[in-house]
Amino acid sequence: MYDEIIGHENLWREMLGSSYESVKIAVHCPENQVGASFKEWLTLPDMGLLVSTAFNVILVNLSHGSASTFLPLRSAPPSSLHNRRPVAMINDRNIHWLRVKLRVNAPLPSLYPSWDRYVEDCAKGWRDGFVFRDIAPIAPVDDATISVVDLGTP
Question: Which tens digits make up the pLDDT trace of 8-30?
Answer without folding.
Answer: 999 989 988 888 888 887 777 65
